[in-house]
Write a structure and sequence with these properties.
The protein is α/β, with parallel strands linked by helices. The protein folds into 2 domains: 6-59, no CATH class; 60-301, Vaccinia Virus protein VP39 (Rossmann fold), CATH 3.40.50. Helices cover 34% and strands 20% of the residues. It has helices at residues 6-11, 54-62, 67-83, 92-104, 123-129, 177-187, 216-225, 239-254, 259-273; strands at residues 22-24, 28-31, 37-41, 44-47, 114-117, 136-139, 148-150, 162-168, 188-199, 229-237, 295-301. It has an 11-stranded mixed sheet with strand order 1-2-3-4-7-6-5-8-9-11-10, sandwiched between helices. Helix 8 (239-254) runs antiparallel to helix 9. The longest helix is centred in the first third of the chain and has 17 residues, at 67-83. It is globular. 38% of the residues are buried.
């Protein structure tokens, strides 16, 4: 087998029929049960069904603008990346919740499988996850950072094989969230957990694959309908973060006709409004803050 994640090798399965009977060589994975064939690209399995809607997204991501525009845009982004503040400010309670779950389900323990769905490139995730070396990363974005490329509506992992799943602002981009959560429930072990962050007050982003938002009650019902029992829920990023991001996103929309102005103004405005976000730390336990919070988090258990 060409890919190197040892824990992943033990729990990988066909996304189509969920069989673990796979024939794997250096470039292909063939399911012995249903006959489906999948690629291995850059040592990463691409376990996505041929009829999956996410394949269209891959094609959309390949589309590019003119080389001149792309070159200058990349220069702006490189400069901005050195000055750019974090998009969101996480509440203390959400960070503590993640840390406690990782202490209970140590990813580096031989008998624990912990999966991160999504990029996890935000500074909070990097800081909390960096001490652990054996987290399995699956998803579609930031391919160089992934162990497995997949559609989470058909997770290519065995049933009852995962101790903890962390989902980093992913479900708003999923074309069928009910099916995705049902799949998460299938692969989590009895007694296992899911930690999911989902936006509520957030502008349309990563177009056109941005499909839904959830209230704090809505996120609980989504997981409850698909088998999970609530352990904890709360504000992940609050209303002041939502306000700051709205102003930056509004600026981007107003100047979308001129990419050069947009690329200059958005970073400047982002730096100006960033201190607003830290007010969320003062009001993270306030009920009124839930009315217009940026993101919520949910912790569920498979009993």
């Amino acid at each position: 087998m060409s890919f190197q994640n040892q824990k992943l090798k033990r729990i990988i399965a066909c996304p189509n029929c969920k069989s673990a009977l796979l024939n794997i060589d250096q470039e292909k994975i063939n399911c012995k049960e249903c006959g489906e064939l999948y690629d291995i690209i850059n040592d990463k399995p691409v376990l996505i069904n041929n009829d999956s809607p996410v394949l269209k997204w891959f094609e959309l991501k390949k589309e590019s603008t003119s080389s001149e525009k792309r070159r200058y845009s990349e220069l702006f982004r490189a400069l901005y990346s050195r000055l750019r503040p974090e998009d969101r400010v996480w509440t203390n309670s959400s960070q503590k919740a993640m840390q406690e779950l990782l202490e209970i389900n140590n990813p580096d323990a031989d008998d624990a499988n912990v999966v991160l769905i999504g990029s996890g490139l935000e500074s909070v995730f990097r800081r909390i996850l960096t001490p652990y070396k054996n987290i399995i990363r699956i998803g579609l974005t930031n391919q160089e950072n992934m162990d497995l490329l997949s559609d989470i509506c058909d997770i290519p992992l065995r049933k009852d094989s995962i101790n903890l799943i962390l989902s980093s602002s992913v479900l708003e981009h999923v074309y069928d969230p009910e099916k995705a959560v049902k799949e998460i429930f299938r692969v989590v072990k009895p007694g296992g957990y899911v930690y999911a962050e989902i936006p509520f007050m957030r502008a349309y982003h990563m177009a056109p694959v941005d499909y839904q938002r959830y209230t704090i009650s809505g996120i609980e019902e989504l997981f409850k309908r698909n088998g999970f029992t609530l352990v904890n829920k709360g504000i992940c990023s609050g209303p002041f973060t939502a306000l700051a991001l709205f102003l930056v996103d509004l600026c981007g929309s107003l100047f979308s006709f001129n990419w050069c102005i947009k690329e200059i103004l958005m970073p400047i405005l982002s730096l100006i409004v960033h201190p607003l976000k830290y007010l969320d730390r003062l009001f993270e336990k306030s009920t009124w803050a839930e009315i217009s919070a940026c993101n919520f988090y949910y912790i569920g258990k498979k009993e």
